[in-house]
Amino acid sequence: DLESAEADGEEEEKKEPLQIEVSIEERSTCERHLTVTVSRDDVDRYFDKEFRQLMTGADVPGFRKGRVPRKLIEVRFRKDVSEQVKASLLMDSLEQINEEHELSPISEPDLDLEAVEIPAEGPMTFEFDLEVRPEFELPKWKGLKVQRPAYQFTDEDVDQALERLLARRGQLVPFDGPAEAGDYITTDLNFSHEGTTLSSASEEVIRIRPVLSFRDGKIEQFDKLMEGVGAGDTRQCQAELTEDAPNQALRGATVTAEFKVLEVKKLEVPELTPEFLQELGEFESEADLRDAIRDDLERQLEYTQNRRAREQVTDALTASANWELPPGLLERQSQRELQRAVLEMRRAGFGDEEIRAYANDLRQNSRSSTARALKEHFILERIAEAEEVVDEPEDYETEIKLIAKQSDESPRRVRARLEKSGGMDVLRNQIVERKVMELILGQAKFKE
Fold it and tell me: In terms of Cα–Cα distance, which of 410, 160, 119, 143 is closest to 300?
């Protein structure tokens, strides 16, 4: 049996290649349209293989197994066999095309299986669209000139960071008086366009800040709009939706935002008692907490330095990358780019409020930011291949531990969440891209 299995394995390895003709039409930098013609000899050969297998085990009334006439098998089972033959021919054709043509696909073939038919005579032909990695000349990446922001944190910076930390642990209490910047309002809000309500929400709690950022746009000078507002007051303003708003008909449109204030609230922060210091992180004193906050600020500065450096490197690398990217690809990749940015910020220790604000900004400029990120990804991927930069198992352990530490979760829970959401693939790109960026920055010329 073992020898028979080995013989079958060798036969499988020596599978006869298909006689196929492939016509490739370049529709854009990243789009190819393929027309594939499979010879009639191959079609008949695949049918013959299926029928021979059926003859050994087909159960047909009036005949013993293995004794059913071939012609009867062909008539009785041709329809069922046709689907199997079609699937096998398509799968083997795609595999052979992938081996023989350097297409570097970045998505699954857009193939309509129902539209593919096996003709009674002549060859089988099918067509499909494929998104591929663009072909380009690798830009010069060694010796780039990069400016790096430098900053020395002061006690005032630590005070402000401590205030933000305490605010996250604080409580909102009702306030009977006019609101000021930094206060919170409970409000019913309504967005409308030319008299038609687009969306509404009840009892939303919003902090009064200079800019109110929402998914499809932002309201500038929101603090001035809400200055002195009290319970029972209504305020209105105009807001412009971004060009990347989900509703295409409203992209770039001006909408009316109405806020009916129900209540004004002040934030009461907890006192730094010994018990609260222990709860925050087993700190022995306020000085220990301040030292930890300063460390967090330094790590966030490092994130900002890396991001600014990366922006400059990306500008230099993509300066000549004037290839167009398919809208469908940009649409699908925008969520992955958002995931990547959030992972980076979590790793650097930013809070939920800061991450939400940055995520909203990315959503509002998703088309341009995704196109830029995709071009950067293709270029960094090419450098990684040329320089043999790869991801290692320990890289994932390090990243997951950092994210877990910053988000106050266990590494196991973080890994499970990433695996469930498809985030491990995003993390893999992040690891390889960071390694390539470190390689580029290691040979860059810095000016602080």
Answer: 160
The pair of structure tokens assigned to 351 is 């809070």
- Ordered alpha helix ranges (H), 323-422: 327-348, 352-364, 366-387, 393-407, 411-421
Which helix (H) or strand (E) is 308 found in, with range?
Answer: helix 286-318
Q: Rounded to whole angstroms, how far apart are CA atoms 348 and 306?
A: 11
Question: Using CA atoms, how far apart are residues 289 and 280, in angstroms rounded to an integer?
Answer: 8
| 241, burial (CB in 10 Å: exposed 0-12, middle 13-18, buried 19+) | buried
Show the tokens assigned to 288.
């220990």
Cβ neighbours of residue 396 under 8 Å, at least 6 residues apart?
415, 424, 427, 428, 431
Within the chain, how many helices (H) and strands (E) appear?
A: 13, 12
**Residue 382: which pLDDT band, with cuts at 50, 70 and 90?**
very high
Q: How far apart are CA 42 and CA 36, in angstroms?
A: 13
Cβ atoms 70, 55 nearer than 8 A: yes
Distance CA 84, CA 82 (A): 5
Return the structure tokens found at 14: 């020596």
The structure's pTM equals 0.59
The secondary element (H helix, E strand) that includes residue 173 is strand 171-174
Per the structure block, which two tokens stand in for 60?
Answer: 């047909």
Query: Which pLDDT belongs to residue 80?
Result: 75
Strand partners, 256: 192, 238
The Cα 334–Cα 363 span in angstroms is 8
Which residues, including other chains, have CB under 8 Å from residue 143's CB and lie 6 or more apart?
Answer: 443, 444, 445
What does the alpha-carbon distance between residue 318 and residue 209 come to, in Å, rounded to a whole number?
36
pLDDT of amino acid 2: 43
Task: State what percent of residues in the chain have pLDDT above 70.
Answer: 90
